[in-house]
């Protein structure tokens, strides 16, 4: 799998933040709370569990920074529904 890099309020796979083939973006929405806004994986990377790896990167980041997550994008919502072990980072 390609390396997942940290950008400004995103994690991505690609040459740069502006030239990516996969990304997950998040924004600060409150006191130690972030929202996962968007998950994108290009056609050539689909089927390789890249979106799952991107969500996991945000979860790891949230745990390291003591943040809570609001999953706004549909993929992130589905991910958390299917992975109860990661729901500790959800903003409830």
For the structure shown, list the relevant keywords.
92 residues, Aminopeptidase, 2 helices, 38% strand
Summary of the model, kept short:
The protein is an alpha+beta fold. The chain contains 2 helices and 5 strands, in the order ββββαβα. Strands 1-2-3-4-5 form a 5-stranded mixed beta sheet.
Would you give an account of this structure?
The protein has 92 residues and is an alpha+beta fold. The protein has one domain: Gcn5-related N-acetyltransferase (GNAT) (Aminopeptidase, 3-Layer(aba) Sandwich), CATH 3.40.630.30. 27% of the residues lie in helices and 38% in strands. The protein has helices at 50-65, 74-82, and strands at 5-7, 10-16, 19-30, 33-41, 68-71. Strands 1-2-3-4-5 form a 5-stranded mixed β-sheet. Strand 2 and strand 3 (19-30) form a beta hairpin. The longest helix is centred in the middle third of the chain and has 16 residues, at 50-65. The protein is globular.
The radius of gyration over CA amounts to: 12 Å
What would CATH call the architecture?
3-Layer(aba) Sandwich
Strands of the widest sheet, in order across it, are: 1-2-3-4-5
Would you give the CATH topology?
Aminopeptidase
The residue-averaged pLDDT reads 96
**How large is the count of helical segments?**
2
Number of domains: 1
Helix content: 25-40%
Total strand count, please? 5
Topology, please?
Layout: E1 5-7, E2 10-16, E3 19-30, E4 33-41, H1 50-65, E5 68-71, H2 74-82
Parallel strand pairs: 4-5
Antiparallel strand pairs: 1-2, 2-3, 3-4
